User: Fold this.
Amino acid sequence: MTPLANATKTADGVMVNGFVLSPVVEQCNGCDRVREFEGEQFCSSYPVPASKWVGGRCNFATHVKAEVTAAAKVNPLKASKRAAKGR
Ligand code: SF4
Assistant:
């Protein structure tokens, strides 16, 4: 697993850029944003992963499919440009 960048251990806990981090929660298992530091796992995006799961799925989770919303629907023009790039 990718190590946690800029992490230091302080009396208050593991700190990154002035934030004290809480370890990831069970729901984070499998997410690409999980980082490891001294045997514990932390989120590279949020200091308190548990709060990202209160009342629904974390909006940055890479391992859980988002429900399809109007905004997430594929734009046909962009999709054809992407397909053209892939050639
Ligand atoms: S992005 Fe969300 S799901 Fe992924 S590790 Fe961070 S808090 Fe957990």
